[in-house]
């Protein structure tokens, strides 16, 4: 697919539009691994006239605004006359990308056909399940929250405990206040039994962090307090950890670096074994965006909490980068050398550690 150019046979074919950006990592993977695939080329050339556009410039920017593209890569499908058929996205294997094209031509699966059925009043449980599971609805979060809630209302308490419904709730990426997120947070033992503690903790962290980020952007301290009260109600046995996480993420989104460092240090002292990711993330953000040496120095105990729980190549490299920025190059080189040894032992690429060592030794 050439930029701004159509590929495939002309005529009364449907159209496929690929939205991308040079800064989109999954877009790079699709261009490298999926679009050149012979089966992908055969299917799309046979059924679509294909176009692509960079949404950062020109016509691509206008199209992104017109069709509400919020994440990349994005795939839009149209009739030959230009009527929207289907929408999907994300990096994916060739087989799934071909299935997207097939779904676009199947009225029972095409996103905009499903949306028309919803607008016409279909509220049957099977339809609500299918519509809220359609990849295209991910670009319309308010609608996703609404449809998910409507589907859950059709299910009895017993039906909610089925494997199908637990998978449905677990795989929804919806806001904290949505019925699906509320059910997930309130019934964690059932999800742990099916998906494992690590996966459930990760999803909980993401839901709560996203809610706190939104409040931080609005400088809504009252909202943060309400979120923390809600956490206490939904997760009474884990409330302290998740309430403190909400505080940390609220301060992160405000870029209140001094308060963020202190809150993260306090969080790590108690919860590092359960949540190394938040501490790793804090160190990475501080190293990237903070230049105050006194503040950066307070980040070192944060990453050391992480390393004490998980002595991995990534965590060691994160500390080495911080030490390098602090001007402690002898210690930074020692830590980076250990990271290099871990990569070599694990048989993974030593490229990052090697590059960092070269930078430190300049």
Automatic annotation (TrEMBL):
Residues 16-98 form the Thioredoxin-like fold domain. InterPro entries: Thioredoxin-like_fold (IPR012336), Thioredoxin-like_sf (IPR036249). Gene3D superfamilies: Glutaredoxin (3.40.30.10). This is Thioredoxin fold domain-containing protein.
